[in-house]
Amino acid sequence: MTVPDAALRTLTLHAVRLLGLADDAAVARRFRQPLAEVGEELLDLEALGLVSRSSFAETSGWSLTERGREEGERRLAADLDASGARATVERVHRDFLPLNARFQDAVSRWQIRPLPGAPVARNDHTDHRWDDRVLERLTSVGRRVQPLQRDLSDVDPRFDGYAERYAAALERAQHGSPQWVDGVGLDSCHVVWMQLHEDLLATLCLTRGEEG
């Protein structure tokens, strides 16, 4: 998705927000932008105090400052109103919330399998019937989010890909790689879902505490 230079700053800020902590290549890859241009843009944003270089454990990269978060939301809100898509995104967000509750419950069941005397025992994934039921729930939730993503993509192509990425991660989990449900450092179901949620929040300038 190549965009005019005028939109590069908005997408760069937004990519950093969605990724949380990412290097130049990951930021460019998120919205398929030229790496060299994104690298220069990140340096400009750093000079403006909108992003900063951060390190966590063995990971380092770019993260938003508070000013960067506010600027990103301002830009997204302006684009939303200019496109006339606010009503669509607000409706999708309302429809997303009950699915989000179901998804969070399913991930909790993936991580915890209660046992006698151990109600919060870690799921060691040896009970395949338990895991299969959770995967069925995750499949159901993924199926129901597909039309919501299509509605979002119809009003803004930057929303493309969430449902496909979720389905790809779920397929890997179904083929015996449990980390693709809730793993970090890879495009797992949980990572994709959290990015979609954050995308809606950022677009509507909301926090999780304001979702009702």
Give a quick summary of the entry.
The chain has helices at 5-19, 24-30, 35-47, 66-83, 86-111, 128-155, 162-174, 179-182, 189-204; strands at 51-56, 59-64. The protein has 212 residues and is mostly helical.
Any overview of this molecule?
The two termini are 34 Å apart. 66% of the residues lie in helices and 6% in strands. It folds into two domains: 5-77, Arc Repressor Mutant, subunit A (Orthogonal Bundle); 84-210. It has 212 residues and is mainly α. A two-stranded antiparallel sheet has the order 1-2. It is built from nine helices and two strands, in the order H-H-H-E-E-H-H-H-H-H-H.
Low-confidence parts: none
In angstroms, what is the radius of gyration? 18 Å
In round numbers, the mean pLDDT is 93
Number of helices: 9
The helix content, as a percent range, equals: 55-70%
